[in-house]
């Protein structure tokens, strides 16, 4: 990547937990949406906060938690979304990612997809 491209792009991994308010109530691990339809936003946030705490404390690895628990299909890549630029992700997700330093993990980020924690990787 050239330096001008690098300045306009980030790379990130994330863990998505969908809930009743998510725009699409199905995922690779819940194709019928039965669990998602019964998950409140508060429950999803609590789950993510526990995952974040375990990761920050070194009790769990981000990619392993993503692979097992994320509702996003990126779970099969440990949550890795690859590089992306402005305008390619939902605005709250984009803003949070661009505001992180490489290696940093976000607090809870709300989007139409659900709630996320994001780790900037590049």
UniProtKB/TrEMBL annotation:
Residue ranges of every copy of the PpiC domain listed in the record: 7-122
Biased composition (Basic residues): 16-26
Keyword tags: Isomerase, Rotamase
Enzyme class: isomerase
Residue ranges, annotated region (Disordered): 1-35
Pfam families cross-referenced by the UniProt entry: Rotamase
Catalysed reaction equations from the record: [protein]-peptidylproline (omega=180) = [protein]-peptidylproline (omega=0)
GO molecular function: peptidyl-prolyl cis-trans isomerase activity
PROSITE patterns per UniProt: PPIC_PPIASE_1, PPIC_PPIASE_2
Family per similarity comment: Belongs to the PpiC/parvulin rotamase family.
This protein's name: Peptidyl-prolyl cis-trans isomerase
Organism expressing this protein natively: Durio zibethinus (Durian)
Lineage of source species: Eukaryota, Viridiplantae, Streptophyta, Embryophyta, Tracheophyta
